[in-house]
Amino acid sequence: VKNHLSHFVAGFLFAGGLAISGMTDPTRVLAFLDVTGDWDPSLALVMGGAVGVYAAIRAFAKRMERPLVAEGFSPPPAQTIDGRLVTGALIFGVGWGLAGYCPGPALVSSATGGSQVLWFTLAMIATFAVTRIWDGRVKRSASRTSSTGG
Amino acid sequence: MNAPRTPDSGVSLHRSLAVLVGSACAISLITFGLRSIFGLFTDPVVQGQGWSREVFALAIAIQNLFWGIGQPFAGALVDRFGPVRPLAVGGVLSALGIAVMAVAPSPLGLQLSAGALVGLGTTLANGCTSGHGVCGVARLSKRSIVATVSFMGAGMAAVYLVRRLMEASS
Positive or negative CA dihedral for B156, B160, B166, B168? Predict the structure, then answer.
């Protein structure tokens, strides 16, 4: 129960932060990306502020033995830079630049019930699912060929 | 009477050759015709959507590039799964593409395709603005810094393309 509550509080905080900073408004995101036009740098300040807060909390958390509400800290993620990472980031960037939504703000904005953001979120979630399934298949067939091929 | 016909008996060779050539022609006619007939509709599309020639020419150029890029992969899929499934999936994708084109300038098509791109990119890259851009950068993760620079660049390029080039020329 404590765990669910912490999820809820964290989600509430995140959604609130996005809404207050104006990051749920796609026109502001697009204005930030429009460096050759009427550039609005406020998103950089939001991200910079978030990076600062996270870095400070992380420095503090590193000295704790275990997290407040979870069993343990997650192991550090992979450090390899591969084509998949860069391709994925580029594809994400194009979609982000077209619509002005990234996953978090899209979900938060869906609460407003606007038809455009609902369509966006629907397509996004459907693609999450399709990519995961496809990914699982590729990994399964790869492990099959490697186990039979030796 | 019903003697087994072997390819080296004169008449059946003639006939099977005719069937072969006829089938090949029919396949080319149907598949290539589907693409070639597109030329008939381009003028009405340009007029109907109010696009400039440059915008439409760019779209068709991109389509031709992807057509070429897709060929070896489609061929590999046919080698692996046989012709029926790739053809069926290709037909569905083609129809979907044309349907999206019909509604492309409308917000719906834009949101659907952008949503799909964001979904695909986020899954492939294992994160986006929050995961890589905030948490990863704060940890000074090389992976996240590369991802953040990549998606910022791609996002700016997309906005530049849409706002500066397409809207300026239409």
Answer: positive
Interface A:B, Cβ pairs < 8 A: 211
Return the HEC string of B38-51.
HHHHHHHHHHHHCC
pLDDT digits (tens, 9 = 90+) for A89-119: 998 998 898 888 888 888 888 888 777 888 8
Reference B118, options A82, A140, A26; nearest CA is A26
The pTM (predicted TM-score) of the whole model is: 0.63
Q: Model ipTM?
A: 0.77
Domain spans of chain B, in order of start = 32-127, 128-170
CA distance A100 to chain B (A): 9
- For residue A73, what are the contacts with CB-CB under 8 A and spacing of at least 6? A61, A66, A67
Mean pLDDT of B128-147: 83
**Residue numbers in B near A79 (CB within 8 A):** 141-143
The pLDDT tens digits for A11-30 are 899 889 888 888 888 888 89
